[in-house]
Fold this protein.
Amino acid sequence: MTVAAPLLAVRELRVRRGGALVLDISSLTVEEGTILSLIGPNGAGKTTLMQTLACLIKPHGGEFFFKGENVFSSHGLLQYRRMLAMVFQEPLLFDTTVFQNVASGLKIRGMNGPEIEKRVGQNLRRFGIPHLSERSARKLSGGEAQRVALARAMAIQPDILFLDEPFASLDPPTRESLMEDLEKILRQTTTTTLFATHDRMEALRLSDRIAVMNEGRILQIGPPAEVMNQPRDEFIASFVGVETILSGEVIKKDRGSFIASIFAQEVEAVGEVEIGEPVVFCIRPENVTLAVPPHQEATSARNVFPAMITKIVPLGLYYKVHLDCGFPLVAYVTGHSLEDLSLQEGQIVSASFKATAIHVIRKTKKN
Amino acid sequence: MDLILEGILKAFHLLFTLDPEVLGITLLSLQVSGSATLISLFIGISIGTLVALTEFPGRKLVVSLINTGMGLPPVVVGLFVTIFLWRNGPLGFLGILYTPAAMIVAQAVIATPIVMGITLAAIQALPKKLRLQILALGATRLQMVWILVKEARLPLLAGVMAGFGGVISEVGASIMVGGNIKGYSRVLTTATVMETSRGNFDVAIALGIILLLLAYFINLVLTHIQQRERPR
């Protein structure tokens, strides 16, 4: 992905509601043609940020540049709003036909008939719904309705597209097929997109960059792999799917690796730290390996602990195994492994993870 | 029983022979109530939409006043419209008391809060985010209001029905400000009252049936539009 000059840039953007600061963005840029996902729990400020950037909410302070120009002073709000499109969690379709819905943004812009026909037709085909053209928008399934909402947004050919949890109310198969089509369309059209979701898997799949939000702030922003594997703090770690988050203190160090005491157990990790420094270890469940004592093989993992299985939770294709090794640990195993090792609650197993598989958060370091 | 049967027979006779007096009364009823409804639609939908879409201090009070206004007793309206239009009243210079114009004014006063209240409820019942969606589609404020009114068109049609139904069947205000002058300001309801008081039950029943049929046919047309519009 080539990175051009930022299409959108904000500084010190603040929104207050009832006196409380609900949005506080010190800086954010979105490059043209890229997809930025905003992830965070409900109430993190994703929607407020989107609506502020779409000029649907007036901020209480800050600067906002679009294509290098200050939106608040030079563009005029209407002119700016006509460069964007937004899709909400609910399709919010008008009580008319699918065709008229997709045409609505174009009609608002005073576009003429043939051009409307062309654009609507093109977008109905893109989203695989030309057969619904004359159907009433009230007679659509949830997935169809959201396709119409997306087609309506894309018909405008927006310079920037805001997607506010557009898949949140859809069932998994519908979501999957719509996400696949949308991803293709966004890549083909190189539409700059801001995508809010509370589902990290959706974000991982669609984005060039991910921003993790909480309490109205952006806590971390970066490429998906970086945010997922190197979360900056415990909150981000837990939000991006790190199941085991352990606090400890460095007790020994040696040429790039060190040992921290965690619940009186010694755990080895990699990193430059100081002795006595408090650290947080993030261990992703897919990096933990389990073995049953007689079959135990030699391993390169530096951390091997006897552990008792406290709980096994099925998660569709795999199982989540909660362990007690003196500290809590979570591992993912497949159904096959569960059967082969005949894992059961209360059983003692050997749990191992590599020193390099631990993401270390240094607590003294100012984030 | 004879009385009712006779009344019904007379009514059909009057209808089918296109009795000029009855026809005149019927047309005037339609004209007065139709005009009053049109005026009430214009004022009621504009203000109802405005109140629905804006936040201002005292909004709750305004909303409760509108809702109270939906049940204005026609005689009270008649009383105040009479006072206003009285020779020495604030609007006495208009000289329209005891004319169909005065009846239109009184009926518009009755119908406007009904249309306003229903508009207010209809616009408020639309999803809040719809406004944001319309703005995000690039609409000006005026375009947004127009789209919202279009979205609320089915309940608004109910407002038209309720407004028209309220005034075509109203008698108190019409008789007070119109005076029930034969061939000039006599409408179906005022004529029915008069004929009943005179003991001319047959004519009264005939007028009553015409009134009922009229109300029925107009609502039938509006219901037809509403049901055709309802996508299902």
Remarks:
- Chain B touches chain A through 19 residues (CB under 8 Å).
